[in-house]
Specification:
Layout lengths: L3 E2 L2 E2 H14 L16 E5 L2 E4 L4 E4 L12 H13 L11 H13 L4 E7 L2 H18 L6 E5 L8 H6 L14 E5 L11 H16 L4 E6 L2 E2 L5 E2 L4 H12 L2 E6 L22 E4 L1 H4 L6 E6 H6 L19 H16 L2 H16 L8 E6 L4 E5 L2 H13 L2 E2 L1 E3 L2 E4 L7 H27 L1
Parallel strand pairs: 5-17, 7-8, 7-9, 9-12, 12-13
Antiparallel strand pairs: 1-2, 3-4, 4-5, 6-14, 10-11, 13-14, 15-16, 16-19, 18-19
Helix pairs in contact: 2-10, 3-10, 6-7, 11-13, 12-13
The structure holds pyridoxal-5'-phosphate.
Pyridoxal-5'-phosphate binds next to helix 4.
Organism: Streptomyces antimicrobicus
Keywords: Aminotransferase, Pyridoxal phosphate, Transferase
GO molecular function: transaminase activity
């Protein structure tokens, strides 16, 4: 006989688990240990509920801008699905893409006003590299070397994972482009000073000079998958100047940091050092629809008129610029503006950072840091970070492991009371883990 637990029928829940273990291949997951992962069945605001009815604050979603169940976004998506769900933009047109691209241009410097809409972050970086390479070829200065952070992550396609030096993102194919990777010259905890900006800029200057003429520099303004690394103030400005000197295009990967996450609409706006190509994604669709945006300098776009085969961009996906995803994005940005969510991210982020700082004194914690509404607890090693994620889950908080760090990234709609709840839950979880580990050591 079936029994109702929380919001789901127990039999149905068991059936869902069986189906999952039999038929589903999870991305970026180990085969054998992931089957008891949370089965989330409902979300509202900053909270989700699992199949057993347990409630969690979700501070693990890299996409979440407006939280779960936002009625404005749901209404916009529903209306768009009824009117015109989508058409292939390589063959025809619809009005929603233009409206979104215009809104995006309004947030950016005047020169950055031409947007290619795609589905995922990886596609966005892939397209940005194609655009950079074709632009150089079309303008008579072909180049093939890209400079990145060794600890950077830019996606899971072959070209984008070629950039990363992180071990799990390697690939078995030949290198399609030459990549020079810059290893962080200092530990993350020592990277937040103006002096560190000089050291880091010097490392990039060396990489730019060391080899063939550079095509582009691709960096995240905050390293997400590499371990939640806050870069030193002034670094992006120095990097902009270095790229200008070397004739390299500067591409910012704001797939995670864009749309308010760091307390500015885009993270590069903390300094005002604008890129030549900006790639954004996650927060734009708020998790409600897959969408990414590659926004380039208008003159880069104009150069493609001289492409020898089609006189334009030879890149696209059938669902790129999907009308429903565009409608979701416009609605998401509307909510963000009306509810001042960028400012809220900055204010709540400051509160969170202050409240997690005392965790530094606990065993196993190496550093706490943050930028806007992303809090980082760096632990001693990856195993400790993984154990902390589990401990947080046991205390009603979903967080995300990135390398040896745990990232706290709640929706930007978070309230001060919820900041306190998160701090309380992660503190209890860290203490519980520390005492569990000290008991294990004394046995
Ligand atoms: C900085 C950064 N770049 C690129 C990506 C890849 O985006 P997607 O998973 O949408 O392909 C991610 C995803 O986590 C990311 O954080």
């Amino acid at each position: 006989m079936s029994q109702t637990i929380g919001h789901t029928d127990a039999t149905e829940n068991d059936a869902a688990r069986v189906r999952d273990s039999k038929y589903v291949w999870h991305p970026w997951s180990r085969n054998e240990v992931e089957r008891d992962r949370l089965m989330i069945v409902r979300g509202e605001g900053s909270r989700v509920w699992d199949a057993a009815g347990r409630e969690y604050i979700d501070a693990s979603s890299l996409n979440s801008t407006v939280g779960y169940g936002n009625e404005d976004v749901i209404a916009a998506a529903t209306e768009q699905l009824r009117t015109l769900h989508g058409v292939d933009m390589s063959a025809t047109n619809h009005p929603v893409a233009g409206r979104l691209a215009e809104v995006l241009a309004g947030y950016l410097p005047e020169s950055l006003s031409r947007t290619l809409l795609l589905n995922s972050g990886s596609e966005g970086i892939e397209a940005a590299l194609m655009i950079a390479s074709c632009y150089r070829r079309i303008t008579g200065d072909p180049r093939n070397r890209v400079i990145t952070f060794a600890q950077g992550y830019h996606g899971s396609t072959v070209l984008t994972r070629t950039l990363s030096g992180l071990v799990p993102t390697g690939h078995p194919f030949q290198q399609p482009i030459e990549v020079t990777r810059v290893t962080l010259p200092l530990p993350a905890a020592e990277l937040r000073t103006p002096e560190a900006a000089k050291v880091l800029a010097a490392a990039f200057a060396e990489a730019l000079a060391d080899g063939d003429a550079p095509l582009a520099v691709v960096v995240e303004p905050f390293l997400n998958v590499g371990g939640g690394i806050v870069l030193p103030p002034g670094f992006l400005t120095e990097l902009r100047a270095l790229c200008d000197d070397a004739g390299a295009l500067l591409i910012f990967d704001e797939i995670f940091t864009g749309y308010g996450r760091t307390g500015k609409m885009f993270a590069f706006q903390h300094e005002g050092a604008a890129p030549d190509i900006l790639v954004s994604s996650k927060g734009l669709g708020g998790g409600y629809a897959p969408i990414s945006a590659v926004t380039a300098r208008q003159d880069i776009y104009a150069a493609f008129a001289d492409d020898e085969i089609i006189g334009g961009l030879r890149y696209g996906h059938t669902t790129a610029g999907h009308a429903t995803a565009c409608a979701v994005a416009i609605a998401t940005l509307g909510v963000m503006e009306r509810e001042r969510l960028v400012e809220n991210a900055e204010e709540r982020g400051r509160e969170l950072l202050k409240l997690i700082e005392p965790l530094r004194t606990l065993p196993g914690v190496v550093d706490t840091r943050g930028l806007g509404l992303v809090g980082v607890v760096e632990t001693a090693d990856m195993a400790t970070a993984a154990a902390l994620v589990v401990s947080c889950q046991e205390h009603g908080l979903m967080v995300r492991q990135q390398a040896a760090s745990v990232l706290v990234c709640p929706p930007l709609t978070l309230t001060s009371a919820e900041v306190e709840e998160i701090a309380e839950r992660i503190t209890t979880a860290t203490r519980a883990l520390a005492s569990e580990q000290s008991t294990e050591q004394s046995i």
